[in-house]
Amino acid sequence: MGNGNKAEMLIAVCAVLTSAIAVFIAWDQGRVMRAQQHGAVYPVVQVEGFVSSTAEQASMGIRISNSGVGPALIERVSLLENGEPLDSLAPYVDRFPPGYSHSWSSVIGRAVAPGDDVEPLRADWSRDEVTGAQLNAVATEWSQLDMEVCYCSVFERCWITRSLDMGTGMTRAERVERCERTENDIFEAVADLARAPAIETEPTPEVE
Fold first, then answer.
1. Is residue 169 scored above 90 in pLDDT?
2. Vertex 132, ends 128 and 133: CA angle to 5°?
3. What is the C-alpha separation between 173 and 159, in angstroms, rounded?
4. CA separation (Å) from 46 to 16, 17, 49, 160?
5. Are 75 and 151 in contact (CB under 8 A)?
6. What is the distance between the alpha carbons of residues 120 and 107, in angstroms, rounded to a whole number?
7. What is the pLDDT of residues 28-60, one digit of tens each?
8. Which of 47, 77, 79, 112 satisfies CB 3.0 to 4.6 Å to 66 for a cystine?
9. Model confidence over 80-102: pLDDT tens digits?
10. CA nearest 123: which of 32, 59, 64, 176?
11. What backbone phi and psi angles, to 5 degrees, belong to 191?
């Protein structure tokens, strides 16, 4: 092989190596940029139950907040009793002390911005209509429930976070492939219960 052929071979090898290095650098830069993009919109969802009391009003409810740096797209919310999802909150709402007014917010499909929160369920009493013992008893019952939230970032990276004993403990968010959006919002169903008319029963005829 002549010197000319050797030089051409060396140039060709160097060109291939240069191209490979350029491809690797481009891939690595793209990977770093993607990681930076995901990090810039990383949501962190937290759940807590709350009880508050002032001279005029007593309140209790559930709060979902986003302490991350990107919007959290809520796809599924489940309340669990002994690890099993509840179909309805009616038994728990029925044990509220009388005289309350309640508000609710739909969370399925909602985007919670960084630093914002939403209260999917809240009950309020005039302070003279409920005692501290009654409020604590209801809060204790609700604290036995766990809450699970499946949410995604704007880049469709998804996580599940679990609130243990209604906010007294939190598990670290776990990455999941995707979130299956639930059709029914369990908190909206509470509002439907409040709107439902009372069922009137026919008087029992007297037996002669």
1. no
2. 125
3. 6
4. 51, 49, 10, 11
5. yes
6. 7
7. 454 445 444 444 679 999 998 888 888 899 999
8. 112
9. 998 899 988 888 888 889 988 88
10. 59
11. -65, -35
